[in-house]
């Protein structure tokens, strides 16, 4: 009674419903796992809910596409013609997002072609790599803890007092800017500091405020350097 449904598409082989359901469900689970890791590890400014949803939907769609093709060359060319008509354009702001997209596409292809063991092992490996890179903060550079901006109201010869104070609290001190002030006597200075103990940054600021000649002191914590 169901022959018209299972064999009505004239495919090269009859539809195997259990395999189709397993492929779609497994691709959905793999997409969910990738999406959850993406939500937990994403640290950029380009987070998008729709992109996260696409990580779940895309492997299911790819799996369904592979089931539709089913080693049928005519169907494959027809599907290419459809994709040529419909153009999909989306600019990814984060280069790592491309890796997530490729991961869910490959997992969807593995599920759609019935390579379930490959899909499971591949998904576990990809998740392990993504979590390891996130846990180790691989690729990040931490060179400074604090950014200081201040005005020094004395001569440049007496600037050594400020330098000595900074070096006592810091492992590395780098003056990024020194400009003469047109409205006030002295210099506008900007420093990048790698502190000996980041938790004692307030002590450094208090000593700078008490130092004669220092004014307009501002500070900002330096986050890990990231690509813009």
Describe what you observe in this structure:
The chain has eight helices and four strands. The chain has helices at residues 3-6, 17-41, 49-69, 73-85, 95-112, 116-135, 160-169, 201-210; strands spanning 146-152, 170-180, 187-195, 214-221. The protein is rod-shaped, with a radius of gyration of 29 Å. The protein is of the alpha+beta class and 228 residues long. Helix 2 (17-41) packs antiparallel against helix 5, helix 2 packs parallel to helix 6 and helix 5 packs antiparallel against helix 6 (116-135). Strands 2-3-1-4 form a four-stranded antiparallel beta sheet. It has two domains: 3-135, no CATH class; 146-221, Alpha-Beta Plaits, CATH 3.30.70.
Quick rundown:
Helices cover 53% and strands 15% of the residues. The protein is an alpha+beta fold and 228 residues long.
Largest sheet: 4 strands, antiparallel
Strand-pairing-aware structural class:
alpha+beta
H/E order of the elements? HHHHHHEHEEHE
Average pLDDT, rounded to a whole number, is: 77
What is the approximate shape? rod-shaped
What Rg, in angstroms, do the CA atoms define? 29 Å
Count of structural domains:
2
What gap, in angstroms, lies between the N and C termini? 61 Å
Helix-strand blueprint:
Elements: H1 3-6, H2 17-41, H3 49-69, H4 73-85, H5 95-112, H6 116-135, E1 146-152, H7 160-169, E2 170-180, E3 187-195, H8 201-210, E4 214-221
Antiparallel strand pairs: 1-3, 1-4, 2-3
Helix pairs in contact: 2-3, 2-5, 2-6, 3-5, 5-6, 7-8
